[in-house]
Automatic annotation (TrEMBL):
Record localization: Cell membrane
Key words of the record: Cell membrane, Hydrolase, Membrane, Metal-binding, Metalloprotease, Protease, Transmembrane, Transmembrane helix, Zinc
MF-aspect GO terms: metal ion binding; metallopeptidase activity
Domain Peptidase M50: 9-112, 120-157
Residues annotated as transmembrane: 6-29, 50-72, 92-112, 124-142, 171-192
Native organism taxonomy: Bacteria, Candidatus Zambryskiibacteriota
InterPro entries (UniProt xref): Metallopeptidase_M50B, Peptidase_M50, Rip2-like
UniProt-recorded name of the protein: Site-2 protease family protein
Amino acid sequence: MAGIDFFFVIAILLVSVVLHELAHGYAALKLGDPTALYAGRLTLNPLKHIDPFGSLLLPIMGYLLGGFIIGWAKPVPFNPYNLQAGRWGEALVAAAGPASNIVIALLFTLLIRFGGFAGGFIDIVSYIVLINIVLACFNLIPIPPLDGSKIVFAFLPLPFVYKYRMMLESYGIFLAIAILFVVWPLLFPFVLDVFGLVTGIPV
């Protein structure tokens, strides 16, 4: 990947993770929790959302090591006890993040399919689609602290949720390493297949 492509990818990734976190915050606000609003996180200002490791260092490391480029922003704070939807509230807030990435990917897929564009513009739009598919699939992995775990918890019996959550969250750092270096490489070929299917562009 050329140097200029790398900077495009980082810019697209930053915008996408910011929109992902904004979706969490606005979903929580709609469900009755203004925590993110009071924390000043319902803003498009990337400086409010950038996580030094997840938004900058990790993507750069992924690029330099020749691997996949993945990242995240600082999680938007919310108080699950303020949410009006009961135990489903946390799942709805969690689902809003990946849903925002899916919507972005679908909108830009329509540009690829029906926009009649070519060349460099299609390359940029393809990056947008691919990165947002990556973010949606990555965050839907049902392992804490990813969004998929909160969605799964809503469907499980409460006693099992408490036990499962305490057990997994106590090994957070090890789970994060496992997700990045074991689970995600196994899932990434599926992501590329989805990208090729929706855009018609072979990877």
